[in-house]
Amino acid sequence: MPVDLYYVPGSAPCRAVLLTARALNLNLNLKLVDLHHGEHLKPEYLKINPQHTVPTLVDDGYPIYESRAIITYLVNKYGKGSALYPEEPKARALVDQRLYFDIGTLYQRFSDYFYPQVFGNAPADKDKLAKVEDALQLLDTFLEGQKYVAGPNLTVADLSIIAGVSSFEASDIDFKKYANVKRWYETVKSTAPGYQEANEKGLDAFKALVNSILKK
Predict the structure, then answer these.
(1) Which residue in 206, 203, 192, 204 sits closest to 19, CA to CA?
(2) Per-residue model confidence as pLDDT tens digits over 90-129
(3) CB within 8 Å of 109: residues ≥ 6 apart
(4) Annotated catalytic residue: which of 11, 160, 166, 167?
(5) Which InterPro entries match (predicted)?
(6) Radius of gyration over alpha carbons of the chain, in Å?
């Protein structure tokens, strides 16, 4: 059976899954979810994912949601032995730490700061911006002397974090002023398989959406 991915191209979590699939050379059956018209709230979608979020993966009838759970699942099932999600306990723990940092701190703070401006017409909050800057400083520290966020190899942590950090380009946040983050960003862009197709296209869609909303 095909592996179905319910997604929205501009979504950073969705792009993280697309990047992981490309790194695994795994073909996904893409199913576009029209959030604007409430497809994610329809009974058939709620039956798959009661949280009504994207992305949602369905593999042989088994649904998984939350992008970081999806990407680790994909490597566990389709990339045994891959450095993307190492099996050695300490190496895996470091990848997990970075993923938890991403969902709980870095991407969360970006979301708290930027999305109310885009989707709620709220003014920029300097205190929330300071928290984003603090998270970027932590990321910069993690990258000191490291090629990737969890060591010498590209992992799902890089793919998840770059999907989110690339979205910063649609905002007023200058993440490239952090030298280690800037170097890492360019490294992942040039080494992640299928980066252009899996992330850049969706990022362009996100930027276009932001511009169309903020110009109103």
Answers:
(1) 192
(2) 999 999 999 999 999 999 999 999 999 999 999 999 999 9
(3) 128, 131, 132, 134, 135
(4) 11
(5) Glutathione-S-Trfase_C-like, Glutathione-S-Trfase_C_sf, Glutathione_S-Trfase, Glutathione_S-Trfase_N, GST_C, Thioredoxin-like_sf
(6) 17
